[in-house]
């Protein structure tokens, strides 16, 4: 079999950097293979993708050693234009990737650049739109599509050139479950039909475990692990503490407890673990799982009554929302892209005024309060920290709001240093925020809000672009804040986090609240999840199938089999 | 609804369906014509015609609120600078300032005329910009024999401007949530608050530009010689007629003013 990509002793450092970003990368990818790449932020994943497409060394200055060959052609001796005849690339943010204003134009753009005749172009556009199941969307503006559709259009615009290799750099990190499924389904279809080689960078280990032929772990610019998913996760779990699929983690926990025998090859999908869990269920008396402990909650502090909101372009984002949030609650708001979650947050924080309906914040109508008044009580942490940081240093960033509140400098210093210590940022207090890593910037965005000591903290997608271990770190932190008496509202797509942390879950779709209940009520309602385009975590699926009693997470599973005879 | 650079417009708006060359020509005409005309009455008539066109073309003025408010602010500034900063001699001097300028009958006339000129330009340009899409710029410019690279750069800049506006509002919201009040305080405080928006906007802008650069490379932009085009926009008879009308309008105005001197305003200070 031919190699589509060969990377040989590749070293790379940026012109402005003192250290090597990629160190001695050796990698061979066979034609038609589906390769997953994972690794912490700053590991060099995006840099490697840029090398594979020739942007490095042609468009970015730096020092390169070693070779990258695409179907035998050395990237150093080929222009980007000749490389991209074979390679299509999709980046994380589809909105930045679109350079035109209609789906059909976006797909045509690459073909026009190649000089494809108009009649052939029309045929190819029709072909790729069919391929990605998007016939009928030709004249839509790409920015008006759902997250999954946007990435499919980004893929289609590359596919139209008929590349033999597709490189995708975290294309699913902002997508809901259905969007992710759409992207993976499309890629698998392409591989099966046309044998396209795929390199997929992602934190979504469960999807990679299901679909990838091989997974590579990149750490500090080096490939430290490379193997088939089962081998990769079995080695990675012990040696590198990498996040593993929930099902694999359950296997290891049960193995540690000596409740199941060792498998020749570790399970990475639900189907692989079902037989052994069935056997376990035969000798197990399952204890009834309790609902997640509901803390004592107080008075209603946020109340929305029949709230509607329509944007100036006519989009009806909220359609009759009734919602009460009580003091001390830990609430998750979930729902597919475009369900109105962010609009709801903007209404609660006063950034948008409802078109119709009433909103009460701490008993006062929102019409009597300014955004500044609300901000003292409700803090909002944005999904993208770069929209929230604008001062010269980390310290100044945290002090900024406090100065606007008219606080004295001594008090400001005490509060800021306390919160920076709490979030492990104190060493960086004089560093400009834009020099921090993305994880650090996200922590700083949280610190900024915490310093204001609001009673309610709202966090919009706190775990985007983070692996499960990093996500857990952030969520454990949120839990600690909640235990200290804050009311927390989290907006997320990550269902594993919902299962692990939520007390109350509000499900939204198309501007309406579909359901409002405990995490168990929501995550075990398959009909509801299907309707809202969400998928329950692997453990819930597994236990529903085997025990008929859905368990939410590993801890609950272990507790529930306490009656093992 | 069709999404343009700045708005959502009804698909059946006749302006949307206009040939790209006509949209660009209209944009040029509404920016050239007011500078030829120096009679306030004619400028008022032109303004009325433009406002009537908004109605005929089904362009919702309500959705252009932000642009119109901005236009009024700019026009106010222009008007005051002409009223208080000019030395145009007049028959009647109403006020004299110690720094050597004065308000005279001619100064006021000049200020009104220049204000009407800008008003025509802004109202006319806003109407076209409201219905403009990337293909209009690219194909319109190509018809005018302007190279594709320039046409594409302009269209990309306009598209980036809409993303920039989104970023601006997001960052502004984040600042409001941290206690900044953009509507209160003296001019220094306000300027300082607005200046703080610059840093994140710049950082986001630079990051986006870098990423966009990569995207254009991987989309194969560069070899413009062999470039083909998806659309063909043949000029229909109605397009030719409208185009001729616009050209005639400019030519007739020039002839009437400079050669026949019939629409020249008699009291115009720069005659």
Write structural notes for this entry.
The complex is a heterodimer of chains A (565) and B (271). Helices cover 39% and strands 23% of the residues of chain A. By secondary structure, chain A is α/β, with parallel strands linked by helices. The radius of gyration of chain A is 25 Å and the shape is globular. Chain A starts with a strand and ends with a strand. In chain B, strands 1-2 form a two-stranded antiparallel sheet. In chain B, strands 3-4 form a two-stranded antiparallel ribbon. In chain B, a hairpin with a 5-residue loop joins strand 3 (93-96) and strand 4 (102-104). In chain B, helix 1 runs parallel beside helix 9 and helix 2 (40-56) packs parallel to helix 4. The radius of gyration of chain B is 22 Å and the shape is globular. The model of chain B has no long low-confidence stretch (mean pLDDT 83).
Topology (SSEs and partners):
The complex is a heterodimer of chains A (565) and B (271).
Chain A: E1 3-14, E2 22-30, E3 34-38, H1 45-52, H2 55-58, E4 62-70, E5 73-74, H3 80-83, E6 87-90, H4 94-97, H5 103-114, H6 118-131, H7 147-159, E7 165-169, H8 177-194, E8 197-201, H9 205-211, E9 214-219, E10 222-227, H10 229-239, H11 246-256, H12 270-282, E11 284-285, E12 300-310, E13 316-326, E14 330-334, H13 341-348, E15 356-361, E16 364-365, H14 371-377, E17 378-381, H15 394-404, H16 409-422, H17 438-451, E18 456-460, H18 468-483, E19 487-492, H19 495-501, E20 504-509, E21 512-518, H20 519-523, H21 526-531, H22 538-546, H23 554-560, E22 563-564
Parallel strand pairs in A: 3-8, 3-9, 6-7, 7-8, 14-19, 14-20, 17-18, 18-19
Antiparallel strand pairs in A: 1-2, 1-4, 4-5, 9-10, 11-22, 12-13, 12-15, 15-16, 20-21
Helix pairs in contact in A: 5-6, 5-7, 7-8, 12-22, 15-16, 15-17, 16-17
Chain B: E1 2-3, E2 8-9, H1 20-36, H2 40-56, H3 65-85, E3 93-96, E4 102-104, H4 105-131, H5 134-143, H6 148-176, H7 187-196, H8 198-218, H9 237-259
Antiparallel strand pairs in B: 1-2, 3-4
Helix pairs in contact in B: 1-4, 1-5, 1-9, 2-4, 3-4, 5-6, 6-8
């Amino acid at each position: 079999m031919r190699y589509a990509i060969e990377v040989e002793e590749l070293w790379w450092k940026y012109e402005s950097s003192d250290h090597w970003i990629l160190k001695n990368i050796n990698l061979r990818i066979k034609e038609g293979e589906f390769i997953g790449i994972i690794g912490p932020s700053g590991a060099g994943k995006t840099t490697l993708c840029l090398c594979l497409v020739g942007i490095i060394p042609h468009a970015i200055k730096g020092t390169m050693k070693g070779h990258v060959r695409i179907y035998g052609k050395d990237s150093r001796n080929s222009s980007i234009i000749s490389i991209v005849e074979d390679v299509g690339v999709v980046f994380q943010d589809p909105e930045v990737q679109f350079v035109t204003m209609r789906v059909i134009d976006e797909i045509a753009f690459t073909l026009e650049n190649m000089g494809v005749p108009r009649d052939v172009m029309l045929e190819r556009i029709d072909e790729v739109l069919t391929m990605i199941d998007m016939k009928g969307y030709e004249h839509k503006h790409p920015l008006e599509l759902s997250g999954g559709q946007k990435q499919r259009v980004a893929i289609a615009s590359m596919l139209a050139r008929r590349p033999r290799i597709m490189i995708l750099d975290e294309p699913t990190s902002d997508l809901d479950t259905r969007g992710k499924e759409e992207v993976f389904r499309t890629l698998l279809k392409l591989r099966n039909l046309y044998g396209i080689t795929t390199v997929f960078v992602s934190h979504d280990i469960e999807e990679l475990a299901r679909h990838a032929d091989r997974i590579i772990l990149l750490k500090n610019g080096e490939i430290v692990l490379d193997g088939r998913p089962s081998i990769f996760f079995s080695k990675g779990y012990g040696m590198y503490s990498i996040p593993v699929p929930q099902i694999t983690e359950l296997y290891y926990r049960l193995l540690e407890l000596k409740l199941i025998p060792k498998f020749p090859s570790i399970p990475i999908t639900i189907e692989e673990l079902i037989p052994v869990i069935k056997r376990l269920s035969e000798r197990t008396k399952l204890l009834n799982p309790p609902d997640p402990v509901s803390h004592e909650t107080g008075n209603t502090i946020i109340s929305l009554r029949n709230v509607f909101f329509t944007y100036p372009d006519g989009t009806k984002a909220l359609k009759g929302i009734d919602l009460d949030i009580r003091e001390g609650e830990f609430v998750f708001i979930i729902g597919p892209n475009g369900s109105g979650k962010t609009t709801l947050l903007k209404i609660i924080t006063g950034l948008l005024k409802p078109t119709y309906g009433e909103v009460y914040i701490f008993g006062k109508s929102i019409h009597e309060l300014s955004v500044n008044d609300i901000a003292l009580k409700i803090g909002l942490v944005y999904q993208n920290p770069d929209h929230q940081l604008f001062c010269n240093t980390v310290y100044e960033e945290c002090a900024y709001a406090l100065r606007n509140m008219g606080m004295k400098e001594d008090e400001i210093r005490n509060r800021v240093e306390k919160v920076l210590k709490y979030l492990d940022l104190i060493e960086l207090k004089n560093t400009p925020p834009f020099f921090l890593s993305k994880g650090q910037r996200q922590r700083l965005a949280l610190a900024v809000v915490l310093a204001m000591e609001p009673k309610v903290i709202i966090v919009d997608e706190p775990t985007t672009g983070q692996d499960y271990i990093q996500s857990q770190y952030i969520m454990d932190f949120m839990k600690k804040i909640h235990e200290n008496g804050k009311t927390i509202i989290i907006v997320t797509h990550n269902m594993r986090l919902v299962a692990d942390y939520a007390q109350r879950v509000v499900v939204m779709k198309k501007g309406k609240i579909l359901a409002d209940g405990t995490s168990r009520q929501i995550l075990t309602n398959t009909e509801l999840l299907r309707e809202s385009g969400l998928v329950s975590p692997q453990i819930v699926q597994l236990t529903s199938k085997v025990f008929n009693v859905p368990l939410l997470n590993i801890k609950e599973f272990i507790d529930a089999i306490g009656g093992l005879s | 609804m069709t999404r343009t650079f700045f708005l959502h417009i009804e698909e059946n708006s006749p302006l949307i369906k206009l040939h790209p060359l006509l949209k660009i020509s209209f944009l040029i005409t509404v920016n050239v014509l007011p500078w030829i005309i120096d009679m306030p009455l004619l400028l008022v008539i032109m303004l009325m015609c433009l406002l009537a066109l908004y109605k005929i073309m089904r362009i919702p003025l309500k959705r252009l609120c932000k642009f119109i408010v901005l236009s009024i602010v700019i026009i106010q500034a222009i008007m005051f600078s002409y009223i208080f900063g000019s030395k145009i001699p007049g028959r009647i001097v109403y006020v004299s300032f110690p720094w050597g300028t004065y308000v005279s009958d001619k100064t006021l006339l000049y200020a009104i005329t220049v204000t009407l000129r800008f008003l025509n330009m802004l109202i006319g340009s806003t109407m076209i910009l409201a219905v403009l899409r990337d293909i209009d710029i690219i194909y319109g410019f190509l018809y005018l024999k302007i190279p594709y690279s320039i046409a594409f750069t302009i269209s990309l800049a306009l598209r980036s401007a809409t993303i920039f506006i989104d970023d601006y509002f997001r960052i502004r919201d984040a600042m409001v949530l941290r206690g900044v009040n953009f509507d209160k305080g003296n001019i220094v405080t306000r300027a300082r608050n607005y200046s703080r928006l610059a840093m994140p906007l710049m950082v986001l802008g630079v990051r986006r530009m870098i990423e966009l650069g990569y995207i254009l490379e991987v989309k194969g932009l560069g070899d413009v010689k062999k470039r083909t085009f998806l659309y063909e926009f043949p000029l229909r008879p109605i397009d030719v007629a409208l185009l001729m009308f616009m050209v005639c309008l400019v030519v007739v105005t020039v002839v009437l003013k400079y050669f026949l001197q019939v629409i020249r305003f008699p009291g115009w200070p720069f005659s």
